[in-house]
Specification:
alpha+beta, Elongation Factor Tu (Ef-tu), domain 3, six-stranded antiparallel β-sheet, globular
């Protein structure tokens, strides 16, 4: 399986890697810093650079449906099995994803209700909540989000066993996404004193890195579903 460097270090911008497979689905590496699309977070873009000066633009990264390995989707060009490359992500885009994704966890901490869906890009994120007969105050949520950002809480991943997760079902907030697992362990994302839940995405190290936030539209998407949109102000 591909060594997923981003799971332990979301700030890793590049790594040395070897091509292990090339096919219509994309390029596989023995190790990667590219996050594959999943959990509402887009796949990373970037470049695979070779020692002879070639640079393959990677336009997306996805999970192979059968093996679960990361597929790096090239714009054009080709590599061969055994080629040594430097895998380099589009860092500015990734960092905005990290900021937005962590902001969505802050939003979860403020709203009591099951999460039925979510998505994000490098400008904004949205979460859908199962909230029958509940009204939400946009200005209040904006103020509370920015308070949590300014308090600069530490953010860290940690792992628990599948048994521990089963005994604490509240750690899984998102009904539509399976918790990320590896070797019988489940990855959690902890915002100290604020939120703890299963998540496989990439995040900032402290909430202060998110920057100022704004709550946009709060939409009714069915009798019980409320969609909350949040935006990076910069």
């Amino acid at each position: 399986m591909t060594e997923e460097i981003f799971r332990a270090d979301g700030y890793a911008k590049s790594c040395e890697a070897t091509v292990t497979a090339v096919g219509e689905g994309g390029i596989r590496l023995d190790r990667t810093v590219f996050y594959p699309e999943g959990g509402g977070q887009p796949g990373d873009t970037g470049w695979l650079r070779t020692a002879d000066g070639r640079a393959l633009r990677i336009t997306d990264t996805r999970k192979d449906g059968e093996s679960g390995e990361s597929l790096h989707i090239p714009e054009e060009g080709a590599l061969a099995v055994g080629d040594a490359v430097t895998a380099e992500i589009d860092w500015d885009r990734r960092f905005r994803h990290m900021r937005t994704h962590t902001a969505m966890h802050l939003l979860c901490s403020l709203i009591e209700g099951e999460v039925t869906g979510g998505n994000l890009n490098d400008q904004k994120g949205r979460l859908d909540f199962n909230l029958p007969d509940t009204s939400l105050d946009k200005e209040h949520l904006t103020a509370e989000l920015n308070r949590l950002v300014q308090e600069d809480h530490p953010v860290e991943p940690r792992w628990v066993s599948a048994e521990e997760l089963a005994s604490n079902p509240d750690l899984v907030r998102t009904m539509s996404v399976r918790p990320p697992t590896s070797g019988g362990q489940v990855r959690l994302l902890e915002i100290e004193g604020v939120d703890l839940q299963a998540c496989g995405g990439t995040h900032v190290a402290r909430t202060g890195e998110i920057g100022r936030l704004r709550v946009g539209k709060i939409e009714n998407k069915g009798r019980q579903n409320r969609r909350v949109n949040i935006h990076l102000e910069d």
